[in-house]
Amino acid sequence: MTPHGPALAPRYREAAPARRRRGSAYARLFTLPGTKAFTAGNLVARLPMGMFSVSAVIMIATGYGSYALAGAVTATGLAATAVVAPWTARLVDRYGQARVAVPATALAVLGQLALLLCVHFGAPAWTLFVSYAATATAPNTGGMSRARWAHLYRDDPAARHTANAFEQAVDELCFMIGPVLAAFLCSALFPEAGTLAGAVLFLGGVLAFAAQRSTEPPVAPRTSAGSPLRAPGMAPLLAVFLATGAVFGAMEVVTLAYVDGPAAGPVLALQAAGSCAAGLAYGRVRRAAGLAGCLAAMAALMTLPLLAATTGSLPALAGALLVAGMATAPTMVTGMGLVQRLTPPAQLNEGMTLAVTALLGGIAAGSATGGWAAEHAPTAAYGYLAPPAAAGLALVVCVAWVRRRA
């Protein structure tokens, strides 16, 4: 248990009414001591999350001349993370963020460096799969940050909604800057530069985040409850996250193959920019939208990149991705809010990590499908059929879940 967390909580609650009377909803989040410091460290740690996949695809495709291999390797790493991450999160809930995140990050960074060396020296293809699978111990930095907000504002649902929207905007900011930075480093310096820079930022950011002990949630007492997966409604919600992840994975690989050059990073960043803007606006609303409505908007908007790609116009594709991204953040904020409500407080890190691992599993499937489509379809534009199809599947699963609950 951290020494300061429980003692500070009453003082935070007493000051809340005064804070609500002034400033914006986002400014009020950071009136609590230590929130700026842990957010800054977490931001540095999360930036590589937008770099690693793009860097790996560019690095492997350059070294081995195959987008299919690059997509398969990244899919393997994401699938391995989907298996390992819930166990890492369970250790975080049991022993605390700082004690678990630092060694877990160090192991993941070693996996990234191993992948870099294998590609640089032209090692057999199977070594790429093994190396990238070794990155699976990477802790869910976004989940740990959300857990801190949930602990600090456990008695203020409106503040938690704003915090979730802020965290989703941070995710999108990382996926807006990360691909651009990765593509620039890989093209301007050398193909391995993106992975190397990401590894340094990841380790440094986690160390800075873990050092902020005053805002770390206290270690929860051990519970005999099973996995949060058994909570009512959690399984179908995770299925929605799985299908949603396929949207992101397919969109990324198909766009990298379609653009095929330094402009790929900025074009991908526009989708994240649209999502970031929509997420910040969504955090200001007093009442969250329903998940089914968010997914319906996503399924509709994801058809725009397909229509733009068939024209062959890169500016049209860029604009379509910007608009399509605007449905992403509201969907994720609403989904994460449901996860927090369904998960027991003592298992919050594990519950949110299950959602993230479901996303990663979908991203893995979408990456593999997108890589195959980019290499075997008559034109790369046909790969853009996958994202709206996956979004439509997520909507169907959500509607079936809602009707069953009714």
Question: How would you describe what is shown here?
Answer:
With 406 residues, this protein is an all-alpha fold. It has a single domain (33-405), classed as MFS general substrate transporter like domains (Growth Hormone, Chain: A, Up-down Bundle), CATH 1.20.1250. It is built from 18 helices and no strands. Helix 6 (97-120) packs antiparallel against helix 10 (193-210) and helix 9 (157-188) packs antiparallel against helix 12 (264-282). The radius of gyration is 20 Å and the shape is globular. The chain starts with a helix and ends with a helix. Residues 1-23 have low confidence and may be disordered.
Tally of contiguous helical segments: 18
Q: Predict the CATH topology.
A: Growth Hormone, Chain: A
Q: Biggest sheet, open or closed, and with what strands and sense?
A: none
CATH class: Mainly Alpha
Summarize the structure.
With 406 residues, the protein is mostly helical. Helix content is 76%, strand content 0%.
Write the layout of secondary structure elements.
Blueprint: H1 5-20, H2 25-29, H3 35-46, H4 52-64, H5 67-95, H6 97-120, H7 125-133, H8 141-152, H9 157-188, H10 193-210, H11 234-259, H12 264-282, H13 291-301, H14 303-311, H15 314-324, H16 328-342, H17 348-376, H18 386-405
Helix pairs in contact: 3-10, 4-5, 4-6, 4-9, 4-10, 5-6, 5-7, 5-17, 6-7, 6-10, 8-9, 9-10, 9-12, 9-16, 11-12, 11-17, 11-18, 12-15, 12-16, 13-16, 13-18, 14-15, 16-17
